[in-house]
Amino acid sequence: MNALDELAESFSRLPGIGKKSALRIAGWLLKTDREFMLRFSNQIETLQEKIRPCSVCGSWTEEDPCPVCSDITRDKTVICVVEQPQDVGTIDSSHEFHGLFHVLGGVISPLEGMTPDKLRIQQLLERVKSGGIKEVILATNPTVEGDTTALFIQRVLQETGVEVTRLASGLPAGGDLEYADRLTLARSFRGRTKI
Fold first, then answer.
1. Strand-pair category, 135-138 with 99-103
2. Among residues 5, 99, 123, 135, which one has the fewest Cβ atoms lying within 10 Å of its Cβ?
């Protein structure tokens, strides 16, 4: 296996990149200018050093707390609970939600070893109990695992008296927030329901 094949093999491990696409990307990199290659490789090399989870919400950030948690104009009485850090950017880009976020770090999936104690559910409960939170919006993906996680969180938060809502229709069953368009997300937020 030569260096080109090894690079293509590495690219094919990325989500959504098959072997043909990986070979195409590796071939394109061979033809590009050296300055881009050095900048690109440096960005990959230093990514894990520069980006870390926010100590408050769990989203990816270079500064702690993240810009969303630090923004004084955001509604600090509402928390939107999402599965993954990339969901924060997806929802925030809809410009429909102006509150805070909480990233779980996954969903309950016993077959994959993801139990409630491995998610950031306890941190969410602590944030709610610290006061000031009036509503928690559960924005987990509309999958069996996402629905199970939302139901579990709703039960955990029941004792706090905070209003718990779930995103409304508009998100397809089995779909991911990451691929939802802005209009669909906006409609989901406007039509959320109490659970």
1. unpaired
2. 5
- Determine which helix (DSSP H) or strand (DSSP E) holds 14, and give its type and residue range: none
Number of H helices, E strands in the chain: 8, 7
What is the token pair recorded at 79? 């928390």
Place of tokens 């690079």: 7
Sequence-ordered strand ranges (E) for the chain: 52-53, 60-61, 75-82, 99-103, 135-138, 163-166, 193-194
Beta strands 60-61 and 75-82, pairing class: unpaired
Angle at the Cα of 108 from the Cα atoms of 105 and 112, rounded to 5 degrees: 95
Contact 99, 76 (CB under 8 A): yes
pTM of the full structure: 0.80
Q: List the pLDDT tens digit at each of the 195 positions of the chain.
A: 788 889 999 999 999 999 999 999 999 999 999 999 999 999 999 999 999 999 999 999 999 999 999 999 999 999 999 999 999 999 999 888 999 999 999 999 999 999 999 999 999 999 999 989 999 999 998 888 998 999 999 999 999 999 999 887 565 656 676 767 676 777 677 777 677
Amino acid in the structure at residue 105: G
